[in-house]
Amino acid sequence: MEQQTLLLVDDDPSFLYGMRRALYQQPYRVFTAKSGQEAISVLKELKVQVVVSDYKMPKMNGLCLLKRIKQSNPHIILIMLTGYADVGVLVEAINEVGLFKFLVKPVKIELFKRSIISAMDLVKAREAGVASHSESIRKMLLAELEQYYPGITSLPPRDKEGYYIIGPEYS
């Protein structure tokens, strides 16, 4: 089995440098790109298993980049970083690109490393034919979202007219 490859995409060179340094002892190759367009060029040249992209970048935001990657390379595991915790962006990323993780900046280095290790473990499991990709990722993301925003993934019951029943047990 060839060495696994990670691509980090962010328009902030110091952030890329710091994350690359944080991952220097990991058993996979780490490449960086400073824009969505540069990331697409890297993906044409290299076989990459995991892409971590910032959301807010000039010209092409991270969500647009991840959508393009998903269309051309559906096997790549996608992680998004952002300093702007926008639930709408998160939901769109989960539904449209099958996002593996959504991390909010400033991200703790240990959480970042664990997220990459989990993604690489999923790559190994898929290569061994053990993991179903999209449904397991979706369930994991929804569970994680529920931790940060309790109740967001479920709605209270409806009455016979279709209105939601709101009570103290549902708030």
Number of β-strand runs: 5
Helix content: 40-55%
Strand order of the largest sheet: 2-1-3-4-5
Number of helices: 6
Q: Judging from the principal axes of the Cα atoms, what is the shape?
A: globular
Determine the structural class based on helices, strands and strand pairing.
Answer: alpha/beta
Notes on the structure:
With 171 residues, the protein is an alpha/beta fold. It has six helices and five strands. It has a five-stranded parallel sheet with strand order 2-1-3-4-5, with helices on both faces. Helix 2 runs parallel beside helix 3 and helix 3 packs parallel to helix 4. The model has no long low-confidence stretch (mean pLDDT 82).
Topology record:
Blueprint: E1 5-9, H1 13-22, E2 29-33, H2 36-45, E3 50-54, H3 62-72, E4 77-82, H4 87-97, E5 101-104, H5 109-127, H6 133-148
Parallel strand pairs: 1-2, 1-3, 3-4, 4-5
Helix pairs in contact: 2-3, 3-4
In short:
Helix content is 45%, strand content 15%.
Brief descriptors of the model:
5 strands; 171 residues; alpha/beta; globular; 5-stranded parallel beta sheet
